[in-house]
Amino acid sequence: MAKLSVIAKADVQAHDQYQAPRAATKALSSSNVGPNGYSLWVCDSQLADGATIEWDADHGDDAVYVLSGELDVDGRRCPAGGSVIVESGLTVTATAIGETRVVHFGCTDPTPPTGGLFGAANTEGHGVHVVGPEGMFQSGQPEGVRAIWYADSTCDTCRVQLLEVISPPSNETKGKAHSHSMDEIIYLLEGTITMGAYHLEPFTALCVPGDARYALVGGPEGHRFLNFRRDVSEQIYERNSEPLLETGLSRGGHATNDVR
User: Fold this and answer.
1) Alpha-carbon distance 218 to 31, whole Å?
2) In a 3-state reduction of DSSP, which class is residue 175?
3) What is residue 121's DSSP assignment?
4) Class assignment of domain 5-131?
5) H or E segment and range at residue 225
6) What's the pTM?
7) Using one digit for the tens of pLDDT, what is the confidence trace for 22-36?
């Protein structure tokens, strides 16, 4: 896929079968919000109490953000605002506790990345990270734009990135034009974002291929979105400028280690 795409959940058909490429039971409503042919996918689903999501051994690193309700993984609870990071190759089951809404991200290629800045992840000792609402790291300003990092590629056994970006109400919401070295999916949860001719409402996926330049303009009400990537990324603002490494600590953040 060579170009950017925007897909709103309201514009795609909802199903009673789980629309992510993982086995699941008791889906009440599930929508595939990603474009065909892209390297990444995203699925927004409402699950009944006791619903399960199952992983066999043939998958890459997945990230599941809990919008409401809870997910249980082997007795560890992930509440709303937290995420479950399932590392590649694991056989795992997550169970919904009460009616639960999740946003599930993954990679089309089940093979873990090997050519990134940090190299290949360790193939031994893979597990599941159950990360609470405070994340593994936080960066930015407490009263300004900040990011909660649930995974930032620095783990020894996975390279996936999932972060939540929160921008408060403001009249100064225009971001600088920039690019990232990795393909990404931005999934808007609250507020509005404008990008050129596109106007994004909540529950819209913005899929941006690596090295594509773009700028986001947030609405005055503030906004909140998720950002998913397969591997560690670098950000470039001015063309031909020095790339900026994108991890929780490299962006001036600090460890929060909200691990369940």
Assistant:
1) 25
2) coil
3) P
4) mainly beta
5) strand 217-229
6) 0.96
7) 999 999 999 999 999
